[in-house]
User: Fold LacI family transcriptional regulator from Arthrobacter alpinus.
Amino acid sequence: MSALPSTNADGETRATAKKPATIHDVAALSGVAASTVSRALSTPGRVNFRTRARIEAAATELKYVPNAQAKALSSGQTKAVAVLVADITNPFYFDIIRGTQLQLKAAGYTQFLVDTEESKEVEVNTIEQMMQMADGVILTAPRLNDEALVLAATKMPLVTINREVPGIPSVLLDTPTATNQALDHLISLGHSHIAYLGGPGSSSSNIRRWEALSTAAQERGVQMDRLGPFAPRTYSGDAAADALVYSGATAGIAFNDLMAIGMLQRLAARGVRVPEDISLVGCDDIFGADFCSPPLTTVTAPVEQAGRVAVTMLLSRINPGVGTLPRSQSVLPTHLTIRGSTGPAPLRP
Assistant:
């Protein structure tokens, strides 16, 4: 007497059960290329909303499980790490991305790169998605508040760059020390009225720099104005430059190089000479800072190293007991690079 064929959870017999759907099946049903399906499911931000929705509906209908998720189900790891940057067009992040990419590749991991567009909502949504697709997340200059970051860290391994939150591993670039060097540099040139052109109010780096500068200025007996906030983009340089001129300060320290470069352009258009009339300092030493007219005095930081260190710290939590012992924080030194945008304070009647 022959045994009845066994059935699976969906009521199909083993003999008639369908093979698992492939990425090509999803592509055919949704009417797109397989590469588009891969992008939609791995880095959703790179695919427009309507196409992504169509692909996700097809994947659900076919009960498609991406390879990364299949590995996660079987081994507990995807061998992928998500790197979230606030603005992928900002050259500051180029070296961070390069550092994380090289360090992850050396460890046998894939990098998912996401531009969060300086949006808290995008950060939250991406972290939720990456819980199924990545083993951990590196957040560069996150805009989420401390409570949201702590909650996210309870759900998956997480490391921040340029953001200090108790209980979360972090890599910090010690830019406050170098901005104080910039202040001393300007004072040595005879400047006694200096302005700080601030960045986003939600930026931890912006807060740390202003606190350091305001304290140091008070200790040194010079006037320090806080102007802004301004967007950390070149286009904000117009408003920042006008505010600097109106303030009467003879020197300015900008939140980042992009803003400072925009300021140089605006000051030139107004006929304000740099550094003869106003001195200017940037921050980050991005590619192109030394090509400006005049070349930009700026804060230089080991940005690529920050990306590498962040990966090392994250992998030590993904794979505890393997390799180096987990560190809770790493602070990397910075320094002032002096170029042609700073000079002696102008003589005032």
Observations:
- The chain is about 40% helix and 15% strand.
- The CA atoms of residues 26 and 174 lie 48 Å apart.
- Residues 1-17, 70-75 have pLDDT under 50 and may be disordered.
- The two ends are 112 Å apart (CA to CA).
